[in-house]
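Q: My labmate handed me this sequence with no annotations at all. I'd like to see what the chain might look like in three dimensions before we decide whether it's worth expressing. Could you predict it?
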Amino acid sequence: MIHVSNVRPEVTSQYKAAVYFDRLIDDVSFTSQPLRSAAGWYRGDLHMHTAHSDGSCKSQSGREAPCPVFKTAEAAAKRGLDFVGISDHNSMSQYDALRELQPFFDRLLFIPARN
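A: Here is what I predict for the chain of 115 residues:
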């Protein structure tokens, strides 16, 4: 059981988290081959959001707008990340876009994630 503090000091929320590394799911990977096989240090972000939940970025005119999956991936690539987990809230709808984008972003590994 995980106890998480709340913004209100007198409130604590309780969550139970289960992590499995040996269960197969339909969306195990967006690529059939490793992008790199050499040992080394890899830099990434396992908590990114897109317009499929609450991710936002600047529109062409500079206003905040729901951020398309491509723009989120492009931002990660520009920052030199090696991997990202797009972990939109309660959604797997971003998976189709990630599956489509993985061949284009052939130096950035997309990891199936959900928040």
